[in-house]
Automatic annotation (TrEMBL):
Gene3D superfamilies: P-loop containing nucleotide triphosphate hydrolases (3.40.50.300). CDD domains: ABC_MJ0796_LolCDE_FtsE (cd03255). Residues 22-259 form the ABC transporter domain. SMART domains: AAA (SM00382). It comes from Actinomadura violacea. It comes from the Bacteria. PANTHER family: ABC TRANSPORTER RELATED, IMPORT ATP-BINDING PROTEIN. Keywords: ATP-binding, Nucleotide-binding, Transport. The keyword ATP-binding applies. GO terms for molecular function: ATP binding. Pfam families: ABC_tran. This is ABC transporter ATP-binding protein.
Amino acid sequence: MTNTAPSTADAHSAPGAGDFAARAHQIAKVYGRGDAQVIALDSVTVGIPRGRFTAIMGPSGSGKSTLMHCMAGLDSVDSGQVFIGDTELTGLKDKQLTRLRRDKIGFIFQAFNLVPTLTALENITLPMDIAGRKADNAWLDTVIDTVGLRPRLKHRPSELSGGQQQRVACARALASRPEIIFADEPTGNLDSRSGAEVLGFLRDSVRRMGQTIVMVTHDPSAAAYADQVLFLSDGQIVDTMTSPTAERVLERMKGFETGGRPAAPGAQEPGVAAR
């Protein structure tokens, strides 16, 4: 596939690389061997701009979750390079990688992953408590008020609704002011109203608080909250969409159902490169 993006195709050394919160250069990931071999990522190069909300979409098996896991340091790559800010993840030792994930990356998952014996506030500050760092109280207050959790801070997860639990998880991801937040199907366990509340908060955290978020989702309505959408197919980024709407995203996804794949990549967002 021809790369029509600017010189960001060589994302690890391109001018303006400091504008990326995360970068991947020619990363590949293969599972299995022989007839059972699956190419999950096929030489993907991409840069995630700072202060933007990026959604990743694609049909089942397209590699979208693998891309997120590799860029977040949750899975290793077979070849290529991955960066968070100016730090290259590939080659880091386990302790270094654990420290980087703790200090520079926030995570939000479909399962809320809250500690049931802790209060909402204790769950929010848990990563910083484990790291032995004091919270920035002014920032923590901003996060808590943004997600609307102040009346529920003393409640344990069992006393919170699903939407409230996910907002606790969002606040936990934001509390340490990470370089980037990766969200994997964050509304998958929520009803439509709670999901919209969580997505609205994520969008506001980007627009009002300058956060960078990458979200894997299968839901066109969820993707519409993002600033841009990356579409994956067969382990490659095959298209991008800026200022998405649910209708446009759904129409693009329908193309995958009929084997649709653009003959040439769509107009690339500055700072985003696809193979």
